[in-house]
Amino acid sequence: MYIPNLSGRNLFSKFHSSELFCESFCTCNLCGISVFEPWNTFTSFAYILSAIIISVMSHSIDNISNNLKNLYICSIFILGLGTLLWHGKHILIFKIIDQIGMLLTVYTLLLCQVAHSFNITGILDFLTFKIPLLIIFIYFFQYKIMKYANIIFIITIGLNIGFMVYANIYNGLKFDKYSIFGLLSLIIGKIFWIIDKKKIRPLHHYWHILTGLSILFFWISFEYNYTLELG
Q: Is position 204 within any domain?
């Protein structure tokens, strides 16, 4: 994940193009509004499209899956909005929204893995409402925590993998084709992200498209397995 230099900056500080991505020097004009990084900006709709597909096609079978679905959709919308504004305007507050969306999305996937093995009904509101609000509050009012974002994400992803393996061993969780597609999309997207970050070629927009797909595949995988477990 890209971590901006926060030295001497506030929420409304604007970043210079040289600090950011390969496409950062590109601009376009949309209805009189200057937009940086047109490809990176408009491919953020991949996230919003995934959220819409999940909201329309997904069917909750109990309170747990319903709460997780609602949190997931909200998280992806926040991610899409933050990505759109961050790449389009290069203002710090939009990067914060972008990171909040990413963290909430990964956090919801973690709850999905936990739900395969443990009954979280008794603390469902705490996990799916109070903790997300706390994450948003901390990020906005202690925004310099952003410099630890990679550590936070590595820990969260590690917990995801740990609970997934636990559910596979003790609860028969299947590594179905959707989870494999999601993982492959994520890995390929990360390769494009690295190439772009090294300023070799402007490929960051493929990261948006592929992670948008992985977000969708991971949810389909969860819903499929969760339905089997309850059925």
A: yes
Whose tokens are 């953020």? That residue is: 44
Which amino acid would we find at residue 94?
F
Instruction: Check the CA dihedral 181-183-186-190 and report its sign.
Output: negative
β-bridge partners, 66:
none
Could you tell me the pTM of the whole model?
0.92
Query: Which tens digit of pLDDT belongs to each residue from 71-105?
Result: 999 999 999 999 999 999 889 999 999 999 999 99
Strands 33-36 and 27-30: antiparallel
Q: Which residue has the tokens 């992670």?
A: 211
Task: Say which residues have a Cβ less than 8 Å from residue 199's Cβ, sequence separation at least 6.
Answer: 22
Task: Print the SS3 string covering 28-84.
Answer: EEECCEEEECHHHHHCCHHHHHHHHHHHHHCCCCCHHHHHHHHHHHHHHHHHHHHHH
Q: Is residue 12 one of the residues assigned to a domain?
A: no
Asked whether residue 2 is domain-assigned, the answer is no
